[in-house]
Amino acid sequence: MKDLGELAASLRLPSEPVRTPMFIDGKDYSGADSEWVTRKSPGHGVPVTATTRASKRDLDVAVAAARRAFDDGRWSRLSGEARAAVLLKTAQLIRDNVETLAYLETLESGKPIGQSRGEVTAAAGIWEYAAGLARVVHGDSHDTLGPDMFGLVVRQPVGVVGIVTPWNFPFFILSERLPFALAAGCTVVVKPAELTSTTTLKLAALLTEAGLPDGVMNVVTGLGSVVGQALAEHMDVDMISFTGSTPVGRSVLTAAGGNMKKVGLELGGKNPQIVFADADLDDAADAIAFGIAFNAGQCCVSGSRLVVHRSVEEELVERVKAVLGKVRVGDPLDASNHVGAIVEARQFDKIRGFIDAGTRDGAQLVCGGTSSNEGERFFIQPTVFRNVQPGSTLAQEEIFGPVLSVTAFDTFEQAIQLANGVPYGLAASIWTRDLQGAFKSLREVQAGRIWINCTITGGPELPIGGVKQSGIGRETGRYGVEEYTELKSVHVQLGNRPRWIA
Questions:
Q1: What pLDDT shows up at residue 31?
Q2: Among 44, 84, 170, 241, which lies 20 to 30 A Cα-Cα from 185?
Q3: How far apart (Å, rounded) are the C-alpha atoms in residues 5 and 18?
Q4: How far apart are CA 464 and CA 450, in angstroms?
Q5: Quick one: pLDDT at residue 3?
Q6: In DSSP terms, which residues pair with 467 in a beta bridge?
Q7: Is 5 in contact with 101 (CB distance < 8 Å)?
Q8: Is the dihedral of CA 177, 26, 134, 99 positive or negative?
Q9: Which residues are catalytic?
Q10: Could you tell me the CA-to-CA distances from 239 to 164, 350, 426, 443 in Å, in that order?
Q11: What class, spelled out in words, does domain 272-452 have in CATH?
């Protein structure tokens, strides 16, 4: 990536698209019938990268490479110490290439360059954490089975894993999965979103530089409906990890049933910010504004529903409006901007449709609602609606854009009912100075992740994942490694086994 370093440091747009082929069995790979697809920057409207569209035949090549690499033990039978060394070296190489990786991430996704730098740096920390776990993957023993029997529980890598990642956080979300799968001893085929594939391909090259054996990590690019679906269906893939929308997650779950492969799903969210009357309103307002504007609202844990006590609703909404009034939306390569572009025209139109529906449904527009798509550059101002009915489209459906719906409550029971009154259960924030009330709330709120007096924060030590229609399984933490393993029970007879027939 040295050739990109100078360009990244200058923050200039490339004069021609950065071309990156697929990566299979330790080397660049271009299928005989695969076509090159150019990606335009959603923040600039010009071509910036080019990747290939894989065929099912290309996917078969990648899965075969991963299967060979798993079965011959070149990675799965290495010591935890040896695997940890590769992951630690990868983390260092990520840190050495933060500027280039962040630059490519911003070009393809449209997120602000400062945010991209932060995500890549944080991802390096996840790789370091996972490296430590590689050395402590273990099973269990049972010496309670009687004088002539001893029991073992062996934890083994699940095998070949398919990882399908989304376009909103391509590098970071992959780093919440891939190092844990590798720490467990699995081999992997990654299918990144077609819109944002380049940083995944660059990571594959860094892993090879770090000493990862050929075939352990492979990347196929292209359409989810073709390659992603085929990966979920593939009979030689032992597990599929998918991050994306709930409707697509359902189809992945169905496809995986062909060989009963293990499935991990992190899906959509419609996440409440629950603000009680005693909350610090200044702190809450700042975090609520961040929670809806971060990544232009294109975030599965975005705090897109404000559920607030009626006595402080008006005051809090005004404070949120004041914070959002200071938010700068624009060129993602301009470090002074807080919010960048919407990822593509289709997503832009979808968000605009929700904003228009909110107005038609009688919700009160507090701020925002304006947008621009001139020159194939897609920007939407953070938008807030009050008086949103709990059963309305704004309150129920995942928008995946910078649109906040506000609903008031009068009692604790109403707050919990509103918070849980959607099909999703990914994340929630609770704002209160009352510790007892906070703990009572977290027990009642249906979500895989809870933030108390904060939002969209944390580290790799804690698991992530959803309940209800927000997913299956957990990533990161020690749970993240366990997700990519299977348990095997072993019974050891000590001495002579009692004869069935004397």
A1: 83
A2: 170
A3: 12
A4: 10
A5: 74
A6: 425
A7: no
A8: negative
A9: 266
A10: 11, 32, 22, 31
A11: alpha beta
